[in-house]
Amino acid sequence: MSNKLILVLNCGSSSLKFAIIDMSTGEEKLSGLAECLHLDDARMKWKLEGVKGSADLGIGAAHEEALNYIVNEILSKQPALKENLFAIGHRIVHGGEKFTQSVVITDQVIQGIEDCVSLAPLHNPAHLVGIRAAQHAFSGLPNVGVFDTAFHQTMPEQAFLYALPYKLYRENGVRRYGMHGTSHLYICLEAAGILNKPVEELNIINCHLGNGGSVCAIKNGQSVDTSMGMTPLEGLVMGTRCGDIDPAVIFHLYDELGYSMAEINTMLTKESGLLGLTEKTSDCRFVEDNYDTDPAAKRAMDLYCYRLAKYIASYTAALDGRLDAVVFTGGIGENSAPIRELTLARLSLLGFKVNPQENLANRFGKSSNQGIITEQDSTVAMVIQTNEEWVIARDTLALVSA
C-alpha cells in the first residue's frame, strides 16, 4: 500500500465532497458526496475501489457524522486505506490577502480563515466545520488548507481594485479576489501539456462553468484577471447568482420596492441567475433541453452565453496580443455542447470556428482530439476535465513531505 494517500475534503454548507487519492499513481481509491446535511434526508453516496455504495446518514446528520461514517463504515471495509493516509487536504474558498499559497493548518491559520468569513459567508464557515471535524476524526494526521483565492494573488492592481475610495482597500481589504483558483491552475497545467507549451509561456482564457462560474485570463501561466470579485457573486450568470448588475438596483429594491437587505441578499445569491430567468429551475440541463421550445429557457441560455462571450472577448485585452486557447471546464463547461457552440458563435471576430462533430464528441469528457473542438484554421477552443482534488492533494503532499 502506498504511503502517499491523501484524503481531500471539500465542505459546503450542507454537503461534503471527499476523495482519497494515491499520489504515486494519481488513482482515486475513494470518492463520494454527503449531501442534505442538517436536513431530514441527509445521505451519502460513494465509490470505493470501483464499487458504488450509498446510505442514509440519519435526520439532521452534520459534517462530523458524515466523517465518522467514512471512518467507521466505509473505510472499515478497506482498513489499509485509513492506516496509510498521509495527510488531509481541505478546499478553502476564501483566504483574502492572508493566504497567497497553500498552508499547513494551525490555530493561526484557522483564525485567518475565520477572519475571511465575511468575504465568503456561505463557504468559509463550512470549511471550518470540516477542518475541526477532520481533526477529531483523524487525530494525528496533518491538515492542509488549499485556497481558491491563492492562484489569483498574481493579479495586478489594475485588475483587482474597484474604483472606490482607495482607503476601502487599504483599510478594509475591499477588492477583487476571485475564486475557482484550484480549477484554473489545473487547467493551466493541463492546457500547457496539450498545446506543448511551457507553462510560463501559456496564454489562455479558462471558463470554469458549473452552478457557480468564473472566467480567468491566464498570461504566462499566471492569473491576471478573473470574473468573480470580492465574493463569489460577481461576474457571470450562474445557477442562482445574478453575477454583474448595476449596484443601484440594490438601492431601488430597498428604497422604492420595500425589500429588506436580507431579502435582497437572498434574491441575488439564491433566487437569480438561471433560476431567476427561467422562473423554474437553476439546472442548466433544463435550458439546454428546452432551448427551442420554451421561451424562458431560450431567454436564460441566450443571456448566459452572451455574458460569457463578453467576458472572453474582454479578457483578450489582458493577454497582450496572444491567445493560445479558450478552455471550457466544470460541469457545464465540459458537458454542454450547445453552450460552447452558442458562446463561440459570438466570437467569430476572434477567429473561432467550431467543429460540430468534435464539439459533440467532447461531451462528458469523451475527447477524440485532445479536447480541441475547433477547426484546424481556427483559434483554438478546447474542453478539459477539471480536477481540483488532484491540485489539493498535490499541494498537501508537497507541504507535509517538506
Spell the H/E element sequence: EEEEEHHEEHHEHHHEEEHHHHHEHHHEH
Helix content: 25-40%
Question: Mind summarizing the main beta sheet?
Answer: 8 strands, mixed
Q: What ranges have pLDDT less than 50 throughout 5 or more consecutive residues?
A: none
Mean pLDDT, as a whole number?
Answer: 93
What does this structure look like?
This protein has helices at residues 63-74, 79-83, 107-115, 124-137, 157-160, 166-172, 181-194, 248-255, 261-270, 273-278, 284-289, 295-315, 330-335, 337-345, 356-361, 388-401, and strands at residues 5-11, 16-22, 27-35, 43-48, 51-56, 85-92, 103-104, 143-147, 204-209, 213-219, 222-226, 325-329, 381-383. By secondary structure, the chain is of the alpha/beta class. An eight-stranded mixed β-sheet has the order 5-4-3-2-1-6-8-7, with helices on both faces. A five-stranded mixed β-sheet has the order 11-10-9-12-13, with helices on both faces. The protein has 16 helices and 13 strands.
List keywords for this structure.
402 residues; alpha/beta; 8-stranded mixed β-sheet; 16 helices; 38% helix; globular
